[in-house]
Amino acid sequence: MLKNSMMASLLGLSLLVVYACAPAEAPAQIPPTTPERGAPALSAKTAWEEDWERTLREARKEGVVFLYTGYGTEFRKVMTEAMSQKYGIALDVSTGRSSEVSERVMREQKTNTHMADVVTSGTSHFLATYNPGGALQSFEKVLVLPEVVDPKFWWGGKFPWLDPDTKTFLPFFEYVSSPIVINTDLVKAGEVSSWKNLLEPKWKGKMILNDPTVSGTGQKILAVLGYGLMDWDYVTSLLRQEPVVLRDERQMAEWIARGRYPLLIGTQEEQVYELVNAGAPMRLIVPQEGTYTTSGNGNLAHPKGAPHPNAAKIFINFLLSKEGQTLASRATGITSSRIDVPTDHVSPAVVRQAGGRYVSGSNRDFLEKEGDLRKKVADLTRSIIK
């Protein structure tokens, strides 16, 4: 028994020595992971993804972004909800007229009491106030999302810089101004299809004109007509048609709705939409010679000294994305400068059409001359309409 036990031990020891001295087998080769074999192989994040994730982490620490805008309740509601639900960031919105917003921003810049992170306002205030005051910072390092910076998603295949050299502000909305409103019970279909139709004797004394002696849509459309859509002889002839000049936007629209006058020149579309939705017999007209496009309050800027730069960066990219622009467009009834945003919720009259003749609100030559053009309109009006 002892002898057999000793033999077994010696045999086990010898086997152990043999295995210990044998060369080790190479480990089994694991085939690379491919989409065909299962989950795709991990790849390094792109620079924009790293930038975005880093910005979002810091933005959540900041917790809030302050927006100054001319847009009202519905815009504020949908943007606030989206920022909270999508990113966990609060959006604090202050509303006011473009002049009020620009005054507040410039006061903050002068007193170094920065509150505004992002601003939307009218084009003229950017040109006349923000740029000369050096209040804005460039968007070059702020725009991150590929769908935002890719020009193919924007009207005309180019990013909508109003100032491509400094890149400090851009129009994210651009819509067709419908310069004429008719009462469809009093004006037959096709009866006013051209600007020239308004010079016919039957319309003398029967038109309302939004006061062209003060800044507004009435002054703007006459400036555009004189600038080149028609000519100054036409503007003079139109004023000699003895239009009724009013300033109250609501009153103008209501007088057309009630049939007191058959047509109106140069109103704000929002008033018309409200009455049309209530059943008023009104329609917006774009004459065959064309009109102008405008961004309204839809110009975006990022003031210097913004206290929440990361949260602002997240909001700016979201607002300019397809999702953000769709929400904003539906909230305001204004068409986006993006071509992939639906337009089924706005009047066809305000949607830009390929081949349409428009004086662009982003036309630098027109913008630089606009002040003089508006003054000429005001002076001409006063000399003809007493």
Q: In whole angstroms, how far apart are the ends?
A: 136 Å
Q: What is the number of domains?
A: 2
The strand order across the widest sheet is 2-1-3-12-4
Low-confidence runs of at least 5 consecutive residues: 1-41
Please state the structural category: alpha/beta
Oligomer: single chain
The CATH class name of the largest domain reads Alpha Beta
The assigned CATH architecture of the largest domain is: 3-Layer(aba) Sandwich
| CATH level 4 superfamily of the largest domain | Periplasmic binding protein-like II
Radius of gyration: 32 Å
Shape: elongated
SSE order, one letter for each helix or strand: HHEHEHEHHEEEEHHEHEHEEEHHEH
Helix content: 40-55%
* Major sheet characteristics: 5 strands, mixed
Number of helices: 13
